[in-house]
Write a structure and sequence with these properties.
This protein is mostly helical. The protein folds into three domains: about 40 residues, no CATH class; about 50 residues; about 80 residues, no CATH class. It contains ten helices and no strands. It starts with a helix and ends with a helix. It is a multi-pass membrane protein. It comes from Medioppia subpectinata. This is Major facilitator superfamily (MFS) profile domain-containing protein. It is found in: Membrane.
Length: about 180
């Protein structure tokens, strides 16, 4: 939900700002959050899960958990759970992956469905319409200025995402995928 909502907000924000700011400057401005995020990554501790897999239970894991949790949090239970997960992961790794697994129905069926969903999402034409929406409105001879028409469309996309995201959680993805398909 957050990813999709963030995407629609970003598109709407850029379309709205483009009424007053040239696209070149918008591009430069879009670099700022990336630079800030990259700089902030220095202060983020290593993942306790990764540390546990790499080094086992050690002071670095405890310190990373303490940085990520509240000061009064009891991290002992979480440490024990992490150790159990790592043990299970290592036991599972020993079984390995082979091409024969792709012949199993419980593997190839969800893989095929996932790949088809990705294919149809990418080739549905949504991105082409989004990228060329201003030109489409110009060619269509809209009574509304194309820049404003794009903002109206993107506002409706934002509202639909705001309403649709909780619906996905309530109704489930399968029924919504079937209906939208």
């Amino acid at each position: 939900m957050t990813f999709t909502l963030g995407g629609t907000v970003g598109i709407l924000l850029m379309n709205t700002l483009s009424l007053w700011v040239r696209w070149e400057y918008l591009g430069y401005g879009a670099i700022v959050p990336s630079v800030l995020l990259s700089g902030a990554m220095v202060f983020i501790p290593e993942s306790p899960n990764w540390l546990m897999v790499k080094y086992g239970r050690c002071p670095r894991v405890v310190e990373a958990l303490r940085q990520l949790r509240h000061r009064e949090s009891d991290i002992e239970a979480e440490l024990a759970e992490l150790e159990a997960q790592v043990t299970a992961l290592k036991a599972q790794k020993d079984s390995g992956f082979s091409a024969k697994m792709l012949r199993r129905q419980d593997v190839y069926k969800p893989l095929t469905i996932g790949l088809l969903l990705c294919f149809f999402q990418q080739f549905s034409g949504t991105n082409a319409v989004q990228f060329y929406m201003t030109g489409i409105f110009m060619d269509a001879g809209s009574s509304l200025q194309p820049e404003y028409a794009v903002i109206v469309v993107n506002t409706s996309m934002f509202v639909a995402t705001l309403i649709g995201s909780p619906l996905v959680d309530r109704l489930g993805r399968k029924i919504l995928l079937v209906v939208s398909g």
